[in-house]
Write a structure and sequence with these properties.
heterodimer; A: 307 residues; mainly alpha; MetI-like fold; two-stranded antiparallel sheet; 2 strands; B: 458 residues; alpha/beta; D-Maltodextrin-Binding Protein, domain 2; 2 domains; four-stranded mixed beta sheet; disordered N terminus; sugar transport (chain B); signal (chain B); transport (chain B); SBP (chain B); Multiple sugar transport system substrate-binding protein (chain B)
């Protein structure tokens, strides 16, 4: 790369021969890139393409697959759990935005304002992320236990009657959102914190000189300065939460009365419980299309951010 | 342009990468080469469900059996495949798709008909005539692996549902553990007394999530004489007085008796864990539950007993179990060799899984009334005698279950079992989590959904 630095700093185009030489000099880099591309092709793109194909096929993985057009889509449309799954997924994402989007930002602002024990508190906030998701979820299973669970014991301490948490159609979904928020809190907080720390200190100093208090500083300096990262995180949050699976799978099995069945969970049921990979593929494709819309917005936003 | 040439180079790499991946994934799973050798031609078969290394006693027994079998049949090599659990629904299809499915693969009864309908197992009808032991196997057990006049597998284990109960808790609650409940009214009474032992004690536990709720609904329904589907299998039949009785009974125990605890949405492991912890009085389950509670959930054999499912006198009980099927791509030679192994290891009294003398010497539990493959036939009597001779667990704890077998018929799971169980989870979870659940509506809704499922491709 040292050779490259000897070149003029700005060159809009290269003659044909020079381009070839430039590629030749970077062969090692391309070699590394090739490995990564093969891994992506093998583990990410191929399964994705296979899944799209599967959604239009009926297969038993023994005989050649049969093309069935939109039959798999019709099957999952006709399933009464289909509507519940989409509504629950949308509700989960919505609730996760209300709870899971605001909390890390507030936490990051508070951490950023702290003068002492910053590193320690950052570590404490990040700690849940290090816990394997299954462990975190099972920990909450105990917290939510209607009899001896931690949460009901706390409520009891305040003289509040116990809640059914996971066992009630009205509280089950929000209970899952709480678990999800807790498990992902650390990552969001750290990203926000990094964004906050890139804001020039002079802006805050000027604001302080103008007599702005904490809330005015946050509103007039922090929010405008982190607008893009907030938007990117919002989109990432939507994409991540719409794929929610592990929480309903481990905590509620989609119940009670389908109140926590999500698209990803239904997809799993079709593929692995019912042995209908076509139906599972159809659901996966529908989810993918929805997520692609959000991903496209995300890419657009991050491109604007870079420019 | 520099960027253009870079893009071109990248595109080439991308295409090459995709090509490589496609080449590695797209290779056809050609059927294994057809062997043209005679009866003694060398053949190697892969067999699933070798006990894992974490279970050294059973593993040692298996290895001993493989050696003994290979001495009897020097032309056959057994390649055992260690897996725990023996079958994982998540990997079954992937193994088939990837061509790594064993020649002789392990399967639960629940999945057998689904596998047959999907043509994911070999038709072994032309070869099973050589398995002499099959003549004595209970017809209903053989029927699990049959579709019309064709056979697709060999059973390894068979049982039907009963009532598993904690004898220690019965005694603590002032109940007689030697006289377990026979009716649901008696279950209610016992459950109330057990729950009254204190906080954390649950009289009766039931599933309602992850398809296990629907599974146990079927078990209770069969015991009451009900059916999940019509005789032709094309429509739901559980919206019946028997089905209603199942849900009303649970609703009463949950909300009127307060004997089912407050924690619901339980799935397979939850009740096992509760049983193992010694705080659960009763649950629907077969003797294998006791084995699991003892092996995996810190329970002690001595503390548990099994009786027939309440209200099941003279009626049917949902049967369960496991067995082996054959890879649809296995050659006739592999199928024949596999059948020889299965006859030796799974069907011969005193050998393989029925080698109770060895099991006792290894300190493994002997005496559970399962597997019951032969019923009252000669091999069945021989197995029962051997089990009694080498028993290491209190066999009398299972007497109520064994006695009831004479009048109970094994009843198979319904077609599209998992789909129907998923539908019935909704009804089960409703009555166990909502006091005002409308049972008539729940059953009507479930039946309507089940009709659609059964109508599809039936």
């Amino acid at each position: 790369m040292a050779v490259l630095t000897a070149k003029p700093p700005v060159r809009r185009s290269l003659p044909q021969g020079a381009a070839r030489r430039a590629v030749g000099r970077n062969l090692t880099a391309y070699g590394f890139l090739c490995g990564a591309l093969i891994c992506f092709a093998f583990f990410s793109w191929y399964p994705m393409i296979r899944e799209i194909i599967l959604s239009f096929q009926s297969t038993n993985f023994v005989d050649p697959a049969q093309w069935v057009g939109f039959d798999n889509f019709r099957t999952v449309f006709a399933d009464s759990a289909f509507r519940s799954a989409w509504l629950n997924t949308a509700a989960f994402s919505g609730l996760a935005l209300v709870v899971g989007y605001a909390v890390p930002f507030v936490l990051a602002v508070v951490l950023n304002e702290l003068r002492h024990a910053k590193a320690y508190l950052r570590f404490v906030v990040y700690l849940p992320v290090m816990l394997p998701p299954a462990v975190g979820v099972l920990l909450f299973k105990w917290f939510y236990d209607p009899g001896a669970g931690l949460f009901n014991q706390i409520l009891d301490g305040f003289g509040i009657p116990p809640l059914s948490w996971l066992d009630s159609t009205s509280t089950a979904l929000i209970s899952l959102v709480i678990v999800s928020t807790w498990m992902n809190l650390g990552t969001g907080t750290l990203i926000y914190l990094a964004a906050l720390q890139s804001i020039p200190g002079e802006l805050y100093e000027s604001a302080e000189l103008d007599g702005a208090g904490l809330f005015r500083r946050v509103w007039h300096v922090t929010v405008p300065q982190t607008k893009l990262i907030l938007l990117v995180m919002l989109l990432l949050q939507v994409v991540a939460t719409m794929q929610v699976f592990i929480e309903p799978y481990l905590l509620t099995g989609g119940g009670p009365e389908n109140a926590t069945v999500t698209v990803a969970y239904l997809m799993y049921q079709y593929a692995f419980n019912f042995g209908d990979f076509g139906g599972g593929g159809a659901l996966g494709l529908m989810l993918m299309v929805v997520l692609m819309v959000f991903s496209a917005i995300y890419l657009r936003v991050s491109r604007d951010n870079q420019s | 342009m520099r960027t253009t040439s870079h893009r071109r180079a990248l595109s080439l790499l991308l295409v090459a990468g995709l090509g490589l991946a496609a080449a590695s994934c797209g290779s056809d799973d050609k059927p294994a080469a057809q062997s043209s050798g005679g009866a003694d031609a060398k053949v190697t078969i892969t067999v699933g469900c070798e006990p894992p290394k974490s279970n050294p006693k059973e593993r040692a027994g298996w290895e001993e059996d493989v050696t003994a079998f290979q001495q009897l049949h020097p032309n056959i090599t057994i390649e055992s495949k260690d897996a725990f659990p023996c079958i994982n629904p998540d990997t079954f299809q992937a193994k088939l798709a990837g061509g790594t499915q064993e020649d002789v693969f392990y399967v639960y009864y629940t999945d057998v008909q689904k596998i047959i309908k999907a043509k994911q197992a070999a038709d072994i009808t032309p070869y099973v005539g050589s398995v002499k032991a099959l003549a004595d196997v209970r017809p209903d057990v053989k029927g699990v692996f049959a579709d019309g006049d064709k056979t697709y597998g060999i059973p390894r284990n068979n049982y039907n549902m009963g009532l598993v109960y904690n004898r220690k808790l019965f005694t603590q609650a002032g109940l007689n553990p030697d006289a377990p409940p026979k009716t649901w009214a008696e279950v209610h009474e016992a459950a109330k007394k057990i729950s009254a032992l204190g906080a954390g004690y649950t009289g009766f536990g039931e599933y309602s999530a992850g398809n296990t709720g629907g599974w146990h609904f079927a078990a209770s329904l069969y015991a009451r004489g009900g059916s999940m589907v019509s005789d032709d299998g094309k429509s739901a039949a559980f919206n019946s007085p028997e089905g209603k009785a199942v849900l009303e009974n649970l609703k009463q125990m949950r909300w009127d008796d307060n004997s089912m605890g407050t924690k619901q949405l339980l799935q397979w492991e939850d009740l096992m864990r509760m049983m193992g912890s010694g705080k659960l009085g009763m649950m629907i389950g077969a003797p294998d539950v006791v084995q699991s509670v003892n092996n995996d959930f810190q329970g002690k054999f001595d503390d548990y007993g099994v009786a027939a499912v309440p209200e099941s006198e003279g009626k049917a009980s949902l049967s369960g179990g496991d067995g082996y099927m054959f890879n649809p791509k296995a050659t006739p030679e592999k199928i024949k060799a596999g059948l020889l192994w299965l006859e030796f290891h799974e069907l011969t009294p005193g050998k393989g899984q029925f080698n109770y003398e060895r099991a006792k010497a290894q300190g493994r539990p002997v005496g559970l009334p399962i597997p019951d493959l032969y019923g009252d036939s000669a091999p069945g009597k021989q197995i029962v005698a051997l089990r009694k001779q080498f028993a290491t667990v209190p066999v009398e704890h299972f007497t109520p279950y064994v006695t009831a077998q004479a009048s109970i018929t094994n009843k198979l799971e319904p077609p599209k079992a998992q789909e129907l169980y998923a539908v019935l989870d909704v009804a089960m979870s409703a009555v166990l989590t909502r006091k005002d659940a409308d049972i008539d509506k729940l059953l009507a809704d479930a039946a309507s959904k089940a009709d659609k499922i059964l109508a599809k491709n039936s």
